[in-house]
Amino acid sequence: MQFHQLGYFVAVARARHFTRAAEETGTTQPNLSKQIRSLENALGTQLFVRGPSGVELTSAGEALLPHAERILIEVATAERSVHEVTSLRRGRVRVGATPSICEGLLPAALTAFHGQHPGIELEVSEGSSGVLTRDLSEGRLDVALLIAPLRVAAPDLVSTPVLRERLVLASPADADVPDQLRIADLQGRPLVMFREGYDLRDVTRRACSDHGFSPTVAIEGGEMGGVLRFVEAGLGSAVVPAMVIPSRPALKASTLGGTQGEPPLERTIAIVHRSQETLPLAVQSFVEELTDHLRSTGSPDLRQV
Amino acid sequence: MQFHQLGYFVAVARARHFTRAAEETGTTQPNLSKQIRSLENALGTQLFVRGPSGVELTSAGEALLPHAERILIEVATAERSVHEVTSLRRGRVRVGATPSICEGLLPAALTAFHGQHPGIELEVSEGSSGVLTRDLSEGRLDVALLIAPLRVAAPDLVSTPVLRERLVLASPADADVPDQLRIADLQGRPLVMFREGYDLRDVTRRACSDHGFSPTVAIEGGEMGGVLRFVEAGLGSAVVPAMVIPSRPALKASTLGGTQGEPPLERTIAIVHRSQETLPLAVQSFVEELTDHLRSTGSPDLRQV
DNA sequence: CGACCTTCATAACCAGTAGTTATGGAATGA
DNA sequence: TCATTCCATAACTACTGGTTATGAAGGTCG
After folding, report:
1. What confidence tens digit (pLDDT) does each residue in B174-228 have?
2. What is the rounded distance in angstroms from the CA atom of residue A271 to the CA atom of residue A278?
3. Using the beta-carbon criterion (under 8 Å), do A82 and B3 form an inter-chain contact?
4. Contacts of B7 in chain A (CB under 8 A)
5. Does A305 reach chain B within 8 Å, measured CB to CB?
6. Model-level pTM?
C-alpha cells in the first residue's frame, strides 16, 4: 500500500468515476486503473465495482474510505508540522544567563526575538557560568550568555565573545568614595560579596589577589538584589556591573582601574552554545539574532568586542 | 514522502542507530541511509544528526515522530478494518421478509447465521413482497425472503426459489369443516381477509377468481395475528400458510387442492437480492447460508424446490 | 438495428527508485 | 597505532509509477 494510491482511491471514491478522478488528481486514467488495482491487490479485496456508468464502492471500499481520508489529513499535518519547525513558526529555545545579564541585557533581547518569532517558546534559566556551562554541555540548555573565558573545559561548546562590560564599585550615594579608584584602593575597604557561584565573586577575589591582597569582607552570600540593598544600607561597597547602577539612585559608582596604565576592570560576556550541526533551527536563529542585538548594544560601560 | 520511509524513520528514531534499525526493519543499512535521506529531501530538512556514536533527532525529526507513529498506526488500522469486512468479522445485512416468514422460517435462519458470524449486524424489515422488492431495488435492503414470482418487474434482482409452502384453510377447531377441500369449496364460505399488501390476500383472491368466483369476505384488513384471532373467534376461515397452524391449538387446518388432479394450493418462497458483484461479502455469505439453511428445512408443508 | 460515444482495462514502453553488494571514510576505543 | 564501529557512497538490478496508444463492453441516439 502506498500513499499516492490512497490519494487516488479517495479521488475515485469521491468522483465515482475513474476518468474524472484522473483529471482531478492530475494523472491519467490508465495509471489510475493500475494503481487502484495495485491497491486492491495489496489489500486482497476489490474496492470498487466497475460499471460502464460510473463505479461504486464495495463494502471493503467503504470501510477503507474514512481511514484513507484520515491518513491523508494526518500526512498533510505531519508535513505542515515539520515545516513549521523549520520555518521558525514553532520551537523552543532554552536560554541561560548569569543573574546580572538576566536583569540587564537579556530582557530586551528576548523581547526583540519574541516579537519576530512569537511561536517560539523561550525558557530562561538563571545561574552561574559554571552551572550554565554544564547545563549546556549536557543538553539542558540550548544557548547561554556567560562570562568568558569559561572556567571549566568544554570542548563541545562554541563561545563567541560579544561585549566587554565595565565593572564598578557600587557605594551608597552619600558615601565618601572617590569617583575613580585603582584596584589596590579596594584593600581594606569593606565589601559586600556575592554568594558562591556568582562570577562577580570570583572576579572580585581574583582582582584583589592579582594585586597582592585579600578583600575585606563586610557581609557575604547575597544574590544580586540583596547585595545592592546591603550597599544602599551602608554595610559596604560591592564590585558590580556598571549597568546596574543607573536604575539605583541610592548608589554611586566608582570606576575601577582605567588609569595610569592600569587596565579597567571588565568582564567579557560571551554567547555560548553547542557546536554547530545539532542545533535546532530555532536555536541557530536565536543565536544569530542575539549576537546581532548585543553587538549593536553599545554604551560607555558595554564595549563591543 | 513515502509510506515505507516513515516506517524506516520511526525505526531509526527508536533505535537511534541506522544499522540496528536496518536489521529490525529487515532491510540493509545503505538502503536505510538512502531512504532517510530521500525523506529528508522530500521534507526539505534534516531529520537526524548523524554521529559516529549513534544518531539524534533534530527538532524537525522530533516534530515528525509522533505524526509518523500515528500514521503507521492508522494505516495498520485501515488494513485491519478492510480485512475485517472481507473476513466477515464485521458488516451488516439488511434482511426483508413477509410477515408469515418473519414468524416462521426466518428466526431459526438468523440465529444460525448470527452464531457463525456474530460480528455481522442483522436488520430485519417486515413487509409485503411488493414493498420489499422495491426496497431491494433501491438499496434499502440487501436480501429478502419473498413470495415468488415477483409481481413487479425488477430486472436487477436475482430471485432463487427455495421452498414451496402449503397453504391451508384455517378454521376454528370446533367448526364443521372438512379436512380436505377443493378451491371451489371456498365459494360462499365466509373468509377473513388480510389487509391490502399481504401476499396471502392476493393469493386467495387469485385462487378464487381462477375458479370463477369471488370470495365471500367476512371481515377484512387484518395482520397475520389479527386474522388468526378472528378465525379463532369464529368469524370465518382464512387461507394461511400451513406452518402457522401447529402453534394454534384453537385452529384446525383443511388442505386446499391436492385432490382429484387439482394441484395443491401452494406458494413459492424465494431468496431475492441484487445481482452479483455489488453485493457486500457479508451479504453474499448470508445468502449462501440462508439458501443452505432453507434447502435443508423440509416438512410436509414445506417442500424443497 | 447499427453507428457512435463513453468508460474502464490492457499493452508496451520509459524513467525513476527501492533495494542489493561492495567499499570508503571518520570517529572511538583499546 | 590498529582494530572496530558506523554511516555514506557507488554501482547495479529489478520493479513500478507513469505515459501513450489501443481495445472491449455498455449505453445512446438517429
Report:
1. 999 999 999 999 999 999 999 887 888 988 998 899 999 999 999 987 888 889 9
2. 17
3. no
4. none
5. no
6. 0.72
